[in-house]
Every structure is written in structure tokens, then in C-alpha cells.
Amino acid sequence: MITPTPRQSDSPSAAHDRVYRALRTRIMHGEFPPGQAMTLRGIGKMFDVSMTPSREAVRRLVADGGLNLSASGRVSTPELSNERIEELAAIRALIEPELASRALPRAHMALIERLQTINGTIAELVAKHDDVGYIRANLEFHRTLYLRAQAPAMLALTETVWLQLGPTMRALYSRLNRTEVPHNHRLIVAALRAGDEPGLRLAVRSDVTQGLRMLAV
Amino acid sequence: MITPTPRQSDSPSAAHDRVYRALRTRIMHGEFPPGQAMTLRGIGKMFDVSMTPSREAVRRLVADGGLNLSASGRVSTPELSNERIEELAAIRALIEPELASRALPRAHMALIERLQTINGTIAELVAKHDDVGYIRANLEFHRTLYLRAQAPAMLALTETVWLQLGPTMRALYSRLNRTEVPHNHRLIVAALRAGDEPGLRLAVRSDVTQGLRMLAV
DNA sequence: ATGGGCGCAATGTGATCACAAATCGCACAA
DNA sequence: TTGTGCGATTTGTGATCACATTGCGCCCAT
Q1: Ranges for the GntR C-terminal domain (chains A, B) (predicted)?
Q2: Residues of the domain holding B71
Q3: Out of A11, A90, A157, whose CB is closest to B91?
Q4: Residue B76: beta bridge partners?
């Protein structure tokens, strides 16, 4: 702001990168509704940086679909058409079973217990009607499993799909009154225990597809 | 450079966007070897813009994997490990058959003839040992087919995989002496003619996998 | 009260500058 | 000849500024 050269340049974390990661996480977790408008100066003020780093963060987020850029350069979270939502769901249904399948041979007891703990957290958040928390915990469940697949490119790609769906998921889940942990999460854990690869693929695919299917209404 | 406000702001094409698209195309088509270093000022000079637009273009390209950013902020084309190459090939093998399958019911004679024309072009480029041209025509073959799938998100995702593989493909194909059009391209066209969906999936998967398989050497 | 038009505020874009870190080269010593 | 340290140049980062355009609000006329 007034300080001419305050922060050390880049070693710990460049400003633009800090803005990027923070914004990305918040979008992915559904903290913004679809179509939410933002301004470069506003983002800059939000993180106490100038326009330059916030512009760079926005560029990256636009590149992976987390933000939309209007023809005049205005920034906003995406408003997805039904076709686009179904397509993104199809991508998830294609990749995530593959990730789960690759994780299966490496899924030891400690991992399964961690997944069950997350399911417990989800149950609490459902009871509290904490939608943002629910989305975050739900994604954490999937990410925890997929990390075992040792497939970073596939995981990164999946996360950009989650990012694109973030605002829509928030809008979707907020008009949905969940009462319990998704049944498919329990099926996933059970299939992991049993080493049942086809069952695991099916459960993951169902879990991914079910939430987005009610958009067709 | 010296001009204070020369170009009209953004309507036709913002400078950063022009730089982004040009650079992205060149990387995807394999015009740079893996590990090729670049500088923001150099990119700016290359397109006759200042550092600001080239920085933004680089940010976007880093976001979708077309460029790597070292810890000190240095920019270079990615040098992929064998594991990463195999993973990207697996992603292609997962998504591209799906795209082809979705394109199949919409593939009329005009499309098939366009694909055959591209195959003819590929034959010429193979004869001329034009690697960059070969990669470009090869990707054009796939993109022409996939455009019919009416699945823009899937296609965009596939293109980012191509982008990541660009420099590696160039390095790979240049130490490979092709003598003819890939057999699988002809199989793809034949399966389209016959309306043979399983055969199409198999041909696409084989075509995608074969080129990258010899990396395991 | 409503609709249209004008003007100003807000916003994105790109150039430039100052600065810090990193990298490279060269000289000197072992 | 080879390894090491120092200094200059290169390079990325972030702030700021000028400017064009967009869009919003307000005012006036009907």
C-alpha cells in the first residue's frame, strides 16, 4: 500500500500465489454462489496486495475454469448450464473410479480409518446444516482416497473439475436438506475393506453422479 | 514500448490473451524442447509487449501445465518423468475413447472425408520428416473428430493434456523415423464408417497409447 | 410515475519503475 | 587445471500510473 518494498520477494510464498491458493480453495469449497462478481481491486484489498498479484491469481483461476472472464474483462464465478454440469459429472464419473481403483491396492487400514473419521465429521456437519463444511469434508474424503493412487496429474485434473463445480455445488446443496452421510461413502469404505475392485468403482461412480443428477430437474 | 497508449484496450484481443494463445499453440505443437527456458522480458519482446501481458500469459500457461515455474520463478517448458508421461497417456486413454464414442453418432460423411484429408496431409508431412507439422496435423485429426462430441469441457481437458505433452512429443517424435500414416488413424476412420463403437474405442485408445509407450525404454 | 439519455465513477489493461534474489562470469588461489 | 568466492548483470515481483471502456445512477422531460 504505502510501503514501497515491504515483503521479501518470493521464497516463502509469492503474493500472487498466496492469493491464488486462497481464492481457489474458497471457490472449490463453495464459499461463493454462481455468478458472484469480483473486482481486481477488491480481491487485492481482500488480501492486502495491489492489483498486480490479484490479476495474476485471477488469470490462473480463469485458466482452470474456477472463474469466468466476461468479454469486457469482468471477473465472476461461473454459472454452469445443465449441459455443462452433466459433462463435468461425466468427467468425474470417468476419472474418479480409475483413481479409486489405483488406490485400492495401497489402501491399508490406517487409510480406511481416516476415511471413516471423515465420514463421522460429515455426519456432524450434516446435522449442523453446514453446507460449506460439508462440501469441504466431502472433497477431503475423496482426496484422501485418491492421494493413495500415486497419480498426481489425474488428481490435479479432478480437482480442477471440483473447482469448476464449486459454486454450483454450494447452490445445489444449500437447497437440499441432507439428513445423513451419503450411503455411497459407506459403500466405498466397505469395498476398500473387502478389496472389491468392481464394487469400489461402482460405489465411487454412484457417489459422484448422484449429487449432480438432481440438476436435471 | 515508447508508445504510451497505443493499442485499443481489449475488444479485439487483449495483448495478454494474444500472447497466451500464441505461446500455447507453439508449446502444444512441440516447437520447444523439454526444459526450454524462457524469460518474461524475452517473451514480451517476442510479441512486442511489456512484461505485464507476458507475465499474465505465463501464469495461465503454468496453471494448465504447459509451462513450469521453478522455485525462484524461472519459467521453462516441462521435463516430464516417465511416470508422468505414462499417467498423462493413461488420461488420454481414458478420455479420448469417450470423446470418440460421443462423436460417433454425429459423424457424417463430410467429417469422415475431412479426417481422410488430414490423414493425407499427415502422409506428406511424414515424407518430409516435418515433426512439428506432423504433431500439429495429428492433433488436428483428433480435435476434428472430438469437436463432434459436443463436449467442450472434455475437449478442453484433453487439450491441456496435449499441451503438457507437447515438448515431450517433439523430443520423442524427432528421434523416431516414421514411414507412414499411423495404422490406427485408418482404423479410426474405418470404425466411423462402419458405426462400430467398440472398434472405434479400441482404435482411439491404441492410437493414443502407442506413441507414448516407447518412452518406457 | 416512468422512460430515456447523459455524465461520472468504477474497472480492466498495459507500461514503467524500484528492488531483491538469483544466476552467471571471471579472477584468484590451491 | 580445478575449485571457490565475489561482483555485476539478469530476472522475477509488486506497486503505481495513465488511459479507454464499461456500466451504473441520476436527472429531466413527457
Answers
A1: 87-210
A2: 15-76
A3: A157
A4: B37, B68
